[in-house]
Write a structure and sequence with these properties.
The complex is a heterodimer. By secondary structure, chain A is mostly beta strands. Chain A has 2 domains: about 25 residues; about 200 residues, Galactose-binding domain-like (Jelly Rolls). In chain A, about 15% of the residues lie in helices and about 45% in strands. Chain A contains 2 helices and 14 strands. Chain B has 3 helices and no strands. Chain B has one domain. Chain B is mostly helical. The interface between A and B is medium-sized, with 23 and 16 residues.
Chain lengths: ~230, ~150
Amino acid sequence: MRNPRRFYILVSLTALCVVSLMTVTLGFSLPKWFPFSSERSLYEWEDKIFRGKVIYTIEKSGQEGCLHALSIGSASAIFYRIKDRYKAEDYPMISWKWRVVKFPDKEKLRLRQGIEKDDYAARIYMIFPSINFMASKALEYVWDETVPVETVCASPYSKNIKLVVLESGLGKPGQWVAEERNIFEDYRRAFGINPKLKVGAIALMSDADNTQDVSEAYFGDIRIGYKKER
Amino acid sequence: MARQERRKRYLIKTGFQLRYLRLVLIAIILPTILFSACLYYAIFSLMADQLGLPESIAYNITPVLNKVNFALLVGLPVISTTLLFWGLLISHRIAGPIYRLEQDLDKIAKGDLPLRIKLRRKDELGSIAEGINKVLDKIEAKPKQG
């Protein structure tokens, strides 16, 4: 090249473009894995308080760890905002492990209905936010003491929130239960239509605010945004 | 004291008055929509974003939003009707005198020089009628001087 200065400018601009492209591409990658192995694991998670604060702590055993949730008459979640929202249809899978130690005692609310019975020892939310927040949708995977497995129902708070009961009762005490769900299929089953909104947040909660009792659960590492390996 | 004639029709110059009322209606609706959109976006979206949890949003914001919507649903028609009626009255106070001026000037042009334009106390364009009456007074006074 006759003009070396022009050559250097061209190389610099090309390098800048490549770096920018890599930054955009690698900024958020799927699948996303949420390990609960150290206190730093919760840095990116926000506390979302509904009624009182649930205590979320990381419990470590060796190299591995898990999230411990203890609700004493309270309801608050930890919430992770997905910056680059993705289509559930493209990356439908989510997997995690969980374990319930104590269910909120719903017996004393036996005669009550609606939101007063909406306490679950463990829940995982997949949230589909909309610019019009009234149109946002949420799919909740819950572990209940009595409601049969695979029950799908609307939340007493809003028809835009659907609950899918994945586990019922204590199961084998002290044992972890692994879950893997296709959120696209579950959404279709719960709402009757394909999701139009993208997955924008994930949240975990254990609550006992309505029963004013105690609920306690553990959550293992979570993996979202991947396709089922055949 | 001359008895003022009471106009029974509120739509005298229909085209002009309807255009005026349309403008009033637009002046009510457009700012309301813009303001509501900004309010919804600024307050509710911010709150929804902060609350995060779907149940929390449904429990905390939805009832407030329903009340706001109800207030708008009830208040907006009442306010709009009141303002439209007010606009009709104001347009009537302009359209009435224009109609009166047109009618009287037509009669004057046909030779009824002693006629004077009389408008109601609250009507607009009173100064124009007064000016025309003064001109007519001078025109009537001229032959007497000759």
